[in-house]
Amino acid sequence: MNEALRQSAAHVFVDNVFSPSLTTDDQHHLSRVLRLRDGESVTCSDGKGSWVQCEWRNDSIAVIGESVTEAPRNTPLTVVIAPVKGDKTDLVIEKLVEIGIDHIVILAPLDYSVVRWAHDKIPQVMARYQRIAKAAAMQSRRVFLPTVSGPTPLGDVLGQSVGFAEPGGAAHPRDVTTLVIGPEGGFSPAELALASVTVSLGEGILRAETAAIVGAALMVAH
Fold this sequence. Notes:
It comes from freshwater metagenome. By secondary structure, this protein is of the alpha/beta class. The protein has 6 helices and 11 strands. The chain folds into 2 domains: 3-69, CATH 2.40.240.20; 78-221, Alpha/beta knot (3-Layer(aba) Sandwich). Helix content is 28%, strand content 22%. Helix 2 links the parallel strand 1 (10-13) and strand 2.
C-alpha cells in the first residue's frame, strides 16, 4: 500500500478526484466523529482505482498531491454468501472487504437457508450491506470500491472457476476465483451436485460466517 494511503488520517470516496467534494455524511464523520484537525491528511478515491492526497482545512478538504491511478487485480476475487442469522452477515461483509475481496454476492434462499427476507425488505437490507462495504473500504484504505449484489439464485453464479466450500473438498481456495459459502445448514445434495469443484477450508467444520472469512483470506493470500 502507498505510504500516503497508509498514513492518512481518513479515507473517503468521491465522485471526482480532480475536484473532490464531501457528502454531508462524510463531512460530519470527518469533522465530528474523527475530529480531524487542520493540516491532517485525507485521501480521496473515486472507487475505480484513482485517488489523491488532500489536506483537512476549515472543515473541508483541499488537494495537495497529484492523482494516482492504480491497476485492478488481474483476476477479480468473488465470495458468494448465504446470509446468516442476526448481524453476522454484516460482520462477514465488513471482513471480506477488509481482506481484499472485489465482489460480494448475496445468495437467494437455498434449500437449507434459515434467513428468508420478505420481498419488500430486500432493498433496505441490500442498501445496508452496501453501506457496510463502503465503510470497510474507507477504513482499510481501498481505492477500488467492492461491489455487493444480490439476492442472486445459485444457478446464476455457477462457472468453471467457481468452488463450493465443503468439508473434505478436493481443491484449495487458491484454485478458484469465486468461492461459494452455504447457509448454516450447509448445501443440500442437489445443490452440491451443481458444483464443478468443492473447496476445503481445513480439517474442521466451520460456521458459515467463519468459512467466508477464512476462505477469503486464503484466496487473497495466493
